[in-house]
Design a protein that fits this description.
Blueprint lengths: L2 H18 L3 E4 L3 E2 L5 E4 L4 E4 L3 E3 L4 E4 L4 E4 L4 E2 L4 E4 L2 E4 L4 E2 L4 E3 L1 E6 L3 E8 L2 E3 L4 E2 L4 E2 L4 E2 L4 E2 L4 E2 L2 E2 L4 E2 L11
Parallel strand pairs: 1-4, 2-5, 3-6, 4-7, 5-8, 6-9, 7-10, 8-11, 9-12, 10-15, 11-16, 12-17, 15-18, 16-19, 17-20, 18-21, 19-22
Antiparallel strand pairs: 13-14
Length: 178
Amino acid sequence: MKPYFLVLHNYLKLTFYKMFVCKEISFKKVQLLSRQTRFHLSADARVELGKHMITDGHSTLVVNDGGKLIIGESVYLNEGCMISCKERIEIGQGCQFGPGVMIFDNNHKYNAINGVQSRHSTGEIKIGKNCWLAANVVVLKGTVIEDNCVIGAGCIISGHIPKGSVVTGSRELTIQKI
């Protein structure tokens, strides 16, 4: 689809969401969201999308239970990204996410007696400006990633990542003869 048609399509789509689904959504006019990008918003969701947000392929943004999602300008979500927000997720301008990045500010509650429950515990997530999260990174509730960080492929992030950090996980391969 030509970019100007995509911008118009997204403007109409987001305007529809604002009128009929979620009153608390704000966005700039220039959005290059893939037609396969899905929004699951509750009526009490609050969403702010910065200018020049780009998504490729099948990305999903879920905001419910009064959650607030703030995405800065020039943020790029690659194929298969998912953001699930029940409290607050803030993504700074210029961030780039590789394929399959998952961000969850919530987790099911569970215990030894009742097992997994349908209720959730939550914790805010803040990702600073100009960060790169490579393929299949998972960001869990309560995480702060400061500005200018690189998170390597396949990392599971929880906690605080200082400004200007490169985070990688070591995965040793075991190779045996058959």
